[in-house]
Amino acid sequence: MLQGYRDGSFLSSLIHVLTQLKGGQSWILLFSLSGLHMVLLNTVKRPKIVYSFSLLIIVGMILTQSMTGHSANTNSFQGALFHTIHFIAVGAWSGILLVVSFFSDWEHHWESFVGWFTKVAIGCIVWVILTGVAMSLLLSESIVGSWMLSYGQALLVKHLLFIVLLLFAFVNGFLIKRLVAEDAGFSPKRWWKAESLLVVFIYTITGYMTEQETPHNIAQTLEQQEPSVLFRLFTTVDGLGPLTLAPNLISIASLVLAFIFLLFTAVMVKRNSLSGTFFVSAMVVWCLYLGLMSSVSLS
């Protein structure tokens, strides 16, 4: 059946994916819910009805995605629950951020908004971290060992970028809060847009991860595919097997450099240099990545 699907025409393959595979069936449902949402937004004129049904549709989309994600497939109920909470927390935090950053016309008097959004963001971040760690443990046989696979490499980069995202969240949540309190004419949208772009980049990596094999059985996966190109490029591990972290001169030096660059981010923020903050943050990610990968060895 699988061979026939691979050898068939594009149309027959598409029909097979959409009707026979769980991912395809969920895509049809998501597409239908999206279409229903568009019709609702463009036909119903009563805001309360639109908002109420929109909320139900969005929750339905979140549940659909959560039920068919990697976490649900690996650990059915618990994985789906973690994914749902994670999705809601990420959506609430980043959704508000994206909309306000790019679609709001307001340019001053942000104090009240920053006050309540900071509290919402902190709550969402806590849930994102807790559920993210839980899903990583559910999906990964070994966190370090997963770095041999493309999924593990993407997850590592995603986690490192999340550290930078937390830095921007701290700037936008606390330092910017002080600035808007001192100057009613100050607009934080420039910094929010930077944080939003970082969120979109993390979303992109997450999308890539959905197409990769999860590291719940690393040895079995490596029988079917080669180790990640990045793993082979940045480690000196010769052979396959259980991995561990063994710090060495290069890894320690890289981590020290990461800490130094992290200190420089404070300087860039103080200078209100967005490009400088981005560059220094990228160097933090690079040094952390190099430090971790150079310390990988066979256990």
Automatic annotation (TrEMBL):
Residue spans crossing the bilayer: 24-42, 49-68, 80-104, 116-139, 159-180, 192-210, 249-269, 276-298
Its cellular-component GO annotations read: plasma membrane
Entry-linked InterPro entries: CopC/D, Cu-R_CopD_dom
Is Membrane set as a keyword in this record? yes
Listed Pfam families: CopD
Q: Which UniProt keywords apply?
A: Cell membrane, Membrane, Transmembrane, Transmembrane helix
Stated name of the protein: Copper resistance protein D domain-containing protein
Q: In what way does this protein cross or attach to the membrane?
A: Multi-pass membrane protein
Q: Where is the Copper resistance protein D domain?
A: 113-207
State the signal peptide span: none
Per the record, the GO terms for biological process are:
copper ion transport
Q: Does the keyword Transmembrane apply?
A: yes
Q: Where in the cell is it found?
A: Cell membrane
According to the lineage, what is the superkingdom?
Bacteria
Main localization is membrane
